[in-house]
């Protein structure tokens, strides 16, 4: 008769099993992971979470199907912990086990974490390092991805979802990050694509490297799939923590207020000169943003993509805000297809999670051209109109210089349910810029003039003096006040305080039909 194990023996057996699980795919594969410049799933979790707060879920789940017996643990580490004292859920693919591939069991582990995140109201972070679906598992692996996509969709707008590409994220594995709110990509190792270079070569004959196809810089600057391209895993995970500090845990909470000691009534003399008086002279709008934000702190989102518009998070008077600003340094700040997509999605995120929207306006209008028209600028531009109109969070807009045509409407105008609309004295609102307006309205007069060019210049100056100022829209109530630029920060902060209990509701509906 076999002697029964004592409690101490059983405990020792458990500890030995947990120690083996913590080794993932084993020392050799961990060494290979480090040789690629990558940390293991557990090392990444330790860097991301507050020390000692990680509680693992399902550490003893074993592979089934094709990988049964290959490892005592599966290719994902799941659980929860804290970031700055607030709960978050996490799943981290373990590349040391069957290449981090998604099997039926891996899918089940991830789904459990997503379900817990939704039902308890806490953010979820996915650390991606996976070769995609486990080929040998066939439809069971595909089912896992499909159910994850469905859960990502149900979680959208309920809890913040953040994805971090720290290794490959191929095939179906690229779609889950695309369904989340923000995607970080580590330069040199993070990659996302639907079909890899080998498949592309076989089907199209194109030669492209993994990094060119779906590396961090390509994702962040060419496709816009990644919102952040970062150096090294430690910096990347620190930036994830920084982002979470601006966000509430769920859609029923307000973002956390963090007082900085930066005087809410601080005036900045440089704001009188940082924006040139000449309407066509470029400048970096981030110089304005840094002067308005608490301690000059601004976390830019999509910094490398659609650079003619700037979006990101700051605090003003301790309150997190989402900032959208035209960038006159690029395309003169004109709106194009990608800028409209970028701004609309950011506004909708802010609206999901109760983050007030501050809009800084200086744009000559929508970018003209056949490529824009054929590319669907009408539909994509309408996304901004939809996003601002739908948003019920506080919306504060400041006109810095010019605002022309449909772009005036799209950039948080009073007519899209803006709450507070202010202008600097340099502000201009018009259907067309002075040059275009004069060419249309005074075409015949210019043609008959003794010196057509001289007369055209005279009429442009007359038009600018008469119409290119903020006082006409202010006289109609489209602008609530024309302010001293130096007081912009205090005006925004007081408006945020006034609007902190804003209660606005859209008509009951299943959901709207945004122009996709």
Keywords:
516 residues, 16 strands, eight-stranded mixed sheet, 2 domains, alpha/beta, 2-enoyl-CoA Hydratase, Chain A, domain 1, 20 helices, 38% helix, elongated
Can you put this structure into words, describing what you see?
There is one protein chain. It is built from 20 helices and 16 strands. It is α/β, with parallel strands linked by helices and 516 residues long. It has two domains: 225 residues, 2-enoyl-CoA Hydratase, Chain A, domain 1, CATH 3.90.226.10; 196 residues, Alpha-Beta Complex (2-enoyl-CoA Hydratase, Chain A, domain 1), CATH 3.90.226. The strands form two sheets. Strands 1, 2, 3, 4, 5, 6, 7 and 8 form an eight-stranded mixed sheet that branches. Strand 11, helix 12 and strand 12 form a beta-alpha-beta unit. The longest helix has 17 residues. The radius of gyration is 27 Å and the shape is elongated.
Output mean pLDDT.
Answer: 94
Identify the CATH class of the largest domain.
Answer: Alpha Beta
**How many DSSP-defined strands?**
16
Domain module count: 2
Radius of gyration: 27 Å
Q: What's the architecture of the largest domain in CATH terms?
A: Alpha-Beta Complex
Please outline the helices and strands.
Blueprint: H1 7-22, H2 27-35, H3 41-48, E1 55-57, E2 76-83, E3 86-93, H4 104-120, E4 124-130, H5 139-155, E5 161-170, H6 175-178, E6 182-186, E7 191-193, H7 197-204, H8 210-214, H9 216-223, E8 228-230, H10 233-244, H11 286-292, E9 298-301, E10 309-316, E11 319-326, H12 337-352, E12 357-363, H13 370-374, H14 377-390, E13 395-404, H15 405-410, E14 420-423, E15 428-430, H16 434-441, H17 443-448, H18 452-467, H19 471-475, E16 481-482, H20 488-498
Parallel strand pairs: 3-4, 4-5, 5-6, 5-7, 6-8, 11-12, 12-13, 13-14, 13-15, 14-16
Antiparallel strand pairs: 1-2, 2-3, 9-10, 10-11
